[in-house]
Each structure stands twice: as C-alpha cells, then as structure tokens.
Amino acid sequence: MSSTASRKAKSAASNEHLRLRVVAALEDLKAKDVREIDVRGKTSIADILFIASGTSARHVKSIADEVIKFAKEAGVMPLGVEGQTEAEWVLVDLGDIIVHVMMPRIREFYGLERLWTVGDDGAAAAND
User: What is the pTM of this model?
Assistant: First the structure.
C-alpha cells in the first residue's frame, strides 16, 4: 500500500471514529430529529453535516458542548464554534464533519436539510 493510500485509509478510519463520537454525543444529550447528510461531491467544506434540534437554548448549548467534549476525547480539536452566546443555532466545525444544533423554529426557517439534499434521493426523507 502506498503512503498516500495509507494516509487516506487512516483519515477515513479517524473520520468514522469521529462520526461515531458525534452520534454518541447527540444521543447522550437527547438531541431531537438528528439528521446526517453526506455532502461529499457537493462541497469541499466538509464530508458530513449533522443537523439536530434542542428543546431550549440551554439544551442547544449543552448538546454543542457535549459534541465538543466527545470530539476532544477522540483527539479532534474543533476548528471553530459559533453561536454559543445566543444558543439558538450553534455550529461546531470539526473539519470533515460540521454539526449544527438549532432551536426548531430556527431550523425550520433556514431549512438546511432542504438546501443540502436538493436533487438527492434523500430529499423526500429530509422533508418528512
């Protein structure tokens, strides 16, 4: 196996480990209506987007904090975190994975699921 192929395999394994840690963090704090959207081939900013809702601003902030904690435990420092002060929409940038935790009204207004699934077979499922 070439060094490039070896690096890609390690990167894929670490991304999968991080993805599983994000899922665990979202489940741990009972995030609502969690969606995972594969955006490879649609953008270069990330491979996977997670979109989840919280029941209050405090819940949204707590979920985002848990995602950050689990990511750090997996050896990944967030590249950026936005929106923690108001906690109506917190974005956690983990590089290949971006997590959006939102209040339901904010989530409905911006419709990120619709934006990232236009033309996909999953578009119908995202609009349920």
Answer: 0.83
- Which residues have CB under 8 Å from 43's CB, separation 6+? none
Token couple for 42: 């649609």
Amino acid 101 reads: V
- Tell me the pLDDT band of 2, cut-offs 50, 70 and 90: low
Express each pLDDT in 23-39 by its tens digit: 999 999 999 999 999 99
- Cβ(103)–Cβ(64) below 8 Å: no
Pinpoint the alpha helices (H) of the chain. Answer: 3-28, 57-73, 104-110, 112-117, 123-126
So what's the pLDDT on residue 114? 86
In whole angstroms, how large is the CA radius of gyration of the chain? Answer: 15
The residue among 1, 126, 115, 17 whose CA lies nearest residue 71 is: 17
The structure tokens 């029941």 sit at 55
In whole angstroms, how far apart are CA 103 and each of 21, 34, 53, 60? Answer: 22, 12, 5, 7
